[in-house]
Specification:
Layout: H1 3-12, H2 18-32, E1 36-40, H3 56-60, E2 65-67, H4 72-84, E3 88-92
Parallel strand pairs: 1-2, 1-3
Length: about 100
C-alpha cells in the first residue's frame, strides 16, 4: 500500500472509545429497527452510569429507552419476555460479579 493510500485510510477511520462505539451501535440499530430497545438502571434521562446511552432517551423516547430498578434478574426477565413478544431488547448491566 502506498503512503498516500495509507494516509487516506487513516483519515477515513474514526477513533472511538468503547463507550462511544457502544452508543453509536445502539443508535444505529435503534434508528434502523423500531423493535430495538434498551433497558437498565439509569439508561434513560441520565444516559447511563458510563454515558453509553446518552441522547438515546431524547431521540427514541421512554418506550424504547427504559429505566429500571436495580434488579438484574428483573432486567433479564423483562428482556426475555420482550424478546419472546418480538422486540429486540438490549439489557444494560452496570457491573458483573
Amino acid at each position: 500500500m502506498s503512503s498516500a493510500t495509507a494516509t487516506e485510510a487513516e483519515s477515513a477511520t474514526e477513533r472511538l472509545t468503547l463507550v462511544e462505539g457502544v452508543r453509536e451501535g445502539l443508535h444505529t440499530e435503534m434508528a434502523r429497527d423500531d423493535r430495538v430497545m434498551v433497558l437498565g438502571e439509569d439508561v434513560g434521562k441520565n444516559g447511563g452510569v458510563f454515558r453509553a446511552t446518552e441522547g438515546l432517551f431524547e431521540e427514541f423516547g421512554e418506550e424504547r429507552v427504559v429505566d429500571t430498578p436495580l434488579a438484574e434478574s428483573g432486567i433479564v426477565g423483562s428482556s426475555i419476555g420482550l424478546a419472546l413478544s418480538g422486540m429486540k431488547p438490549v439489557a444494560e448491566m452496570q457491573f458483573m460479579g
